[in-house]
Design brief:
Blueprint (H helix, E strand, L loop, with lengths): L2 E2 L4 E2 L4 E2 L4 E2 L4 E2 L4 E2 L4 E2 L4 E2 L3 E3 L4 E2 L4 E2 L14 E4 L4 E2 L4 E2 L8 E4 L4 E2 L4 E2 L4 E2 L4 E2 L4 E2 L4 E2 L4 E2 L4 E2 L4 E2 L4 E2 L4 E2 L7 E5 L2 E6 L1 H6 L4 H15 L5 H11 L5 H11 L12
Parallel strand pairs: 1-4, 2-5, 3-6, 4-7, 5-8, 6-9, 7-10, 8-11, 9-12, 10-13, 11-14, 12-15, 13-16, 14-17, 15-18, 16-19, 17-20, 18-21, 19-22, 20-23, 21-24, 22-25, 23-26, 25-27
Antiparallel strand pairs: 27-28
Length: 262
């Protein structure tokens, strides 16, 4: 059964699946699609162009899909797609893409704490956490199992690698390597996210290789290009995690953050 509070304004052109619960004073605009068993708390606004998956919880006051905060936006038709089992807490804001056909994408099983902001054209994976007042500028990529702590701000076009953790109040202006713990203003690498790696069943061999790779990357006299060659030559056969680290760093366009000891 679909439950809609009498005070809610739900467009007849919106598509709500079985089990959706829409609370008091919610606004759901034309063309919105909401999956099974998703719950929308009071005073939320879900704008045109938004698709929300199943079993999501959206808490009071969240604004989902309002137009991008981008001076280049000229009314183009763009979209915002949110996967399943996401929790979006009070007063979060999430924007769609800027250009015609542009798209902001959020995977599944993520937690967005109160007042978090996801700007236009961001790509967020699954099992991520964006803590209270965490802020993503446009075109940011957050890979699976990454954590952005409270009051941290991520510059546009930055990538945050999988299983990375960014400390609270950090200023992030370059790519964050996967599997790292970073903090500071600007953010710097402090080491490996050992807890995250163990929780995600990384092998002891993978962790040892990553520890060696991080020492070469961040605590040696090698240039970045030289360090990648040393890692590829010294750590054979490469574990999938180290191979991914090399690919991430070598493909970075903004450059990666460096060691806190630099």
């Amino acid at each position: 059964m679909i439950t809609v509070h009498p005070s809610a304004l739900v467009s007849k052109k919106a598509q709500l699946q079985e089990g959706v619960d829409v609370g008091p004073y919610v606004v759901v605009e034309d063309g919105v699609r909401i999956g099974r068993d998703t719950k929308i708390a009071p005073h939320c606004v879900i704008k045109t162009g938004v698709t929300i998956g199943s079993n999501c919880q959206i808490f009071s006051g969240a604004i989902i899909g309002s137009q991008p905060q981008d001076l280049k936006y000229k009314g183009a038709k763009s979209s915002l797609v949110i996967g399943d089992y996401n929790i979006i807490r009070e007063y979060c804001t999430v924007n769609p893409g800027t250009d015609e056909g542009g798209r902001t994408e959020i995977g599944s099983h993520n937690l967005f704490m109160a007042y978090a902001h996801v700007a236009h054209d961001c790509k967020i994976g699954s099992h991520c956490v964006l803590a209270n007042c965490g802020t993503l500028a446009g075109h940011v990529v957050i890979e699976d199992h990454a954590i952005v702590s409270g009051l941290a701000a991520v510059h546009q076009f930055v990538r945050v690698g999988k299983l990375a953790i960014i400390g609270g109040c950090s200023k992030v202006v370059q790519d964050i390597p996967p599997f790292s713990t970073c903090d500071g203003h600007p953010a710097r690498v402090y080491g490996l996210n050992l807890i995250g790696l163990k929780r995600n069943a990384a092998s002891s061999n993978s962790i040892k290789q990553l520890e060696r790779a991080f020492r070469i990357l961040f605590h040696s006299q090698h240039t970045l290009k030289s360090a990648l060659k040393v890692i590829a030559g010294e750590l054979k056969p490469l574990t999938p995690e180290v191979a991914y680290l090399i690919d991430f760093v070598s493909s970075s366009k903004r450059g990666i953050v460096r060691s806190c000891r630099s």
